[in-house]
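Supplementary Data S3. Sequence and C-alpha cells for construct A.
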Amino acid sequence: MINFFLYHTFGFMVAAALMSVGLTGITLAILRRRAILDLPNERSSHTVPTPRGGGWGVMLALLPFWIWALWKAGRLDQPAEIVLVGSTVLLMAVSWIDDRRGLGPAIRFATQIVAVGAVMALLPADLSLTAGLLPLPLDRLVAGFVWLWFVNLFNFMDGIDGITGGATAAMGFGLMLVWLKGRAGEPYNIGNASEVSIRDVARLAAALVTPALPVNFKLSADAAYLTDNPNRRCPDLAKAARDLGYAAEIPLGEGLRRTFRSLQIA
C-alpha cells in the first residue's frame, strides 16, 4: 500500500530544497549588491569577500514547510514545538543583527541559552532525550548543553568554505534515507566496516601532508584509562545494510585524500 502522506511530504521536501537554492541565489545577489560582506582577515578561512546573511535563503524556504509539517502532524498545539519555531526565528534575528552591527559574545550566548532553555522547559515530562539513562533534570541539562555546543560548532564550521553545507546535506540525506526505508524508533550505525586504529589514521593523514612527518604515539599513564572505555569502536553495519541498503563506498585513504584536496582548493 502506498503511503501517500510519506510521498506527499517527500515532494514538499524536494520543493523546499529547490526553493532554498533559488532564494539563496537571490539573497546572495542582494547582499553583494548592497556590499554586506565579510572581509577576510588573518583568522578567516576564505580569501575573498563573502556575503553575510546567505542563510536567509535557506531559512525562508524552510520555515513555511516546517510549520506545514507540524500542522500536518497535528503538533501545532504543542508548546515546545511552537517555542522551537519561535526560538529559531529569534536566533535568526540576533544573527542578522550581529552580521550587520556586531554583537558581543555574551549577548549571543545569552540568547542561545534562552532559546534552548525555553524549549527544554516545555518538553513533555515523559520524553527522555537520553533514552532514560539520566533522571529528568539531568537529562534536560545534558541535552541543553549538547544543543548549545552544536549551535556554536555549527557557527564555527560556517566560516570554513563548504564544510557546513556538505555536513548538513550529508546528515539530511541520511535522515531522509532512514525515514523512507528504515524502521521507526530504530537506531542505525553509519560508518566503515573496515577496522582501523587512531594511530593508523594519524599515519595516513601525516603521509598526505609530508611523508617525513613523524607521528608520536604514547600510552596513557593512567592505569585506569581503559576502564569502561572500549578498545574497539568498529560499528556493526548489518542493520543499516539490511534495512537501508547502506554500504560505505569510499575507502578511508581516499576519503582523507579528497578532504585534504578540498582544503587546499579552499
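Construct B, processed identically:
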Amino acid sequence: MHFVHAERYKLSAMSASEFFADENRASGAHISNITRSLDMEFFPGKFKSQKGQDSSGRDEEQIQDWAEIGWLWENILQSGPGGWGFRDRMLKRRQRDSPGADIHLQDAYSHSGVGLTPDGLDTSDAPIWIEEYKATRKSIRHWQRNDLPWGEGWEPEPKWVKTFFEWLSRVMGYCYVTGATRCRFFVYWVCGDWKGSGPQTWRYDIEFEPREIRDNWRLVLSHGIEKKIITGDAAVSAYRSLKRMGGR
C-alpha cells in the first residue's frame, strides 16, 4: 500500500473572506460584519493568538476550516427532501413539541442600510421566535455549569456576555428588524467541555428586553457608520434611523 495523493480539501469554493465580504444573503452591509467588528473592538483579548496577533492576522485556511463546520451544521438543520433529510426529522419533533411550528429559513431582510439573514424564523407563535444554528469549538462550560443549563430567569454574567457577545448582538439585530423578542439557539459544541465529554448539541431559549434590543440596534448602526462598514446611501439610511432613535 502506498499513498498516491494528499491535499487540504475545501468543501466550499469560496474562501472565508469572500463569504463574509459578500454573503449573498441580504442587501446592504451584513450585520455579521458589524457585530464581528464590535466584538473585536470591545474584547480584543479574545482574539489574541499565542503569537500575539489579533483575529485579522489568522491564517485564512484556519478561518475557512471552522467556517465550514458552521455551514455544515446549518445545512444539516436546514436540509429537506432530497438532502440529508435531517430537517424533516427535526420538524417532526418540533411539531410534536410545538404543534403548528412554522419555520422560515434564511429569509433576507434589509433595514437602515444593514442586511440581515436569520437562520430561522418561527412565526407560529406570538411573539415570533428567531432561530440560530451555531457550531463552535468554545467549551460548553462557558455556557453552563455541571452539565446543566443556566436556570430559568438567570441573568447573564459579564464573562458570559463577553464570550458570546457577537452571537447575542447579531440575534438582537434580527429581533429589532422582525419584531421578535425571543431566540432559540441550537448549538453544536464540537469539542464538548474539552474534558472528554465529546461533541454535544443543546437548545437554549433566550428572551430579550425591548430596551436591550433597541440599544443594541443603535450600537450596531453607530459602529457601522463610524467604521465605514455601512457606506454610501446605506450610511445615509442608517444615520436617519439613528436620528429618529435619538442617537448620534
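The chain has a mean pLDDT of 77. The chain is about 40% helix and 15% strand.
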